[in-house]
Specification:
Blueprint lengths: L2 H34 L5 H5 L2 E2 L4 E2 L2 H32 L4 H14 L3 H15 L6 H25 L3 H9 L4 H30 L2 H6 L19 H10 L6 H32 L3
Helix pairs in contact: 1-11, 3-6, 3-8, 4-6, 5-6, 6-8, 7-8, 8-11, 10-11
Length: 281
């Protein structure tokens, strides 16, 4: 077999694999849009639910999801990036650091329901935070940490060593080198990890089921110690627990959640692309 023939076969197989992955996703998105677009209107997005969630809107669920995502970011991002910097730039390659990295990888694969039970035991019961926004945000933050740490560490390690050598040779300290040279170059990769973690947190149901989500709460949260509705749990409830729920309302809720997650993705992609254009390697 000639080199050109093998290259064409490889290209065809890769194209087929891409189509197999992309086409079902596109079809699912189109189906959700077609089924749910009829429910989207101003009242649906801005009104409180009523009549057992069969009428009104989903404003508390939208606000609750946004607030939980912001709380997750506050709880996880600084700690995760700090841990990634330490592991990549300060920690020596010993059996302990290798064990820590292995533990981080394993934690990223733990089912979300386990994090929910852990959050229930630690934050809700032991620390007596109750079912609240702060308990839910801390639980989702713990679930997000492994993903952000792993991707941020890989992004930092991918920065060429020459940046560090030149900075230190010019008299910069290690922290100055990390802050002014390494982190700006690694920022696109770090943003990717943050995006993956927050998107997972925004779409999770099990952790918030144990720590923060309310079945029916037609009001907005007023403090970090309040319960709230959230789109993933709200979608689960109206799809399985409310008899006679119109199908377009179910898919309309799914469409709003999909738009919220995709909007986060678009914003993060634009920011990442802007910083990537400034990258010097």
């Amino acid at each position: 077999m000639s080199r050109q023939t093998s290259q064409k076969i490889a290209f065809a197989l890769l194209t087929a694999a891409t189509v197999v992955v992309v086409v079902p996703i596109v079809l699912v998105i189109i189906y959700i849009i077609a089924q749910g677009i009829g429910a989207i209107n101003w009242e649906f997005l801005t009104a409180m639910p009523r009549s057992g969630m069969r009428k009104g809107g989903i404003l508390p669920a939208i606000v609750g999801t946004v607030v939980l995502t912001l709380g997750t970011a506050i709880a996880s991002i600084p700690l995760a990036i700090g841990a990634a910097i330490y592991l990549a730039e300060y920690a020596r390659d010993t059996w302990l650091t290798r064990l820590i990295r292995l533990a981080i990888i394993n934690l990223a694969g733990i089912p979300s329901v386990v994090y929910g039970l852990f959050g229930l035991g630690l934050f809700v019961l032991f620390l007596r935070l109750g079912t609240s926004l702060i308990a839910g945000s801390l639980t989702l933050g713990l679930m997000t940490l492994p993903v952000v740490i792993s991707t941020a560490e890989e992004a930092i390690l991918a920065v060429p060593q020459s940046f560090r050598v030149v900075s230190i040779s010019l008299g910069g300290t290690r922290w100055q080198t990390i802050r002014h040279q390494v982190l700006p170059q690694a920022l696109p990769g770090i943003l990717t990890g943050v995006l993956l973690g927050l998107e997972r947190a925004a779409g999770e149901t099990a952790p918030i089921l144990f720590t923060v989500a309310a079945f029916y709460l037609p009001r907005l949260p007023h403090s970090p110690f309040d319960q709230t509705m959230a789109l993933p749990y709200h979608l689960y409830v109206i799809s399985t627990q409310v008899p006679g729920m119109p199908i377009n309302v179910q898919y309309g809720t799914a469409l709003v959640l999909l738009i919220l997650v995709l909007s986060m993705n678009v914003v993060a992609t634009l920011i990442r692309s802007r910083f990537r254009r400034r990258r010097q390697w």
